[in-house]
Amino acid sequence: MAQSFSDTTNAPVTRRGFIQFLLGFSVVSTIVGMLVPVVGFLLPKSSAADTGAPVEVGKAEDFGPGSGKIVSVNDKPVIVVNGKSGGLKAFTAICTHLGCIVLWDARKNSIACPCHDGFFNPVTGAVVSGPPPKPLTQYEVIVKDGKVMIGKQLS
Ligand code: FES
């Protein structure tokens, strides 16, 4: 049984070949090292909890008339308010000015930002006064079987 030994796998490694291998390896590893963080940054973050399905945030009696409460929806703060008119409404609790968390001001029947005295309408989320440049993003509120759920983004 004859074997062919014409392949070069047993050829001795030359110094030049070894240096070319090291150079090629370092170039490839440098490129991969630069691309991995860039691709990781550009890919959208997915959360297992963020499915778009309504999220239960409490019982209806937890949000009585004249109340406002911060809840967590898919790890994001949302303010659920039940002002003097308009019924239950939900908005992002992140102020559109510099990102402070807004609060419910029952005395003024308004959503208030404590950082720079920004005020928002509890029915529409529109800016009433202060420096915020845009209204608060509104979310769908679903009341079913005595439970309050926050649904999709409306604005
Ligand atoms: S951060 Fe809300 S008013 Fe400035």
Short description:
This protein is α+β, with helices and mostly antiparallel strands and 155 residues long. The chain has one helix at residues 15-42, and strands at 55-59, 67-73, 76-82, 88-92, 103-105, 110-113, 118-120, 127-129, 138-144, 147-153. It has a domain at 55-153: Rieske [2Fe-2S] iron-sulphur domain (Rieske Iron-sulfur Protein).
**Please, what is the average pLDDT?**
87
**Total count of strands:** 10
Uncertain runs with pLDDT below 50, 5 residues or more? none
The structural class is alpha+beta
Portion of residues within helices: 10-25%
How is the quaternary structure best described? Answer: single chain
Please count the helical segments: 1
What is the fold named in CATH at topology level of the domain at 55-153?
Rieske Iron-sulfur Protein
Residue share in β-strands: 25-35%
Please give the order of strands in the largest beta sheet. 1-10-9-4-3-2
Order of helices and strands: HEEEEEEEEEE
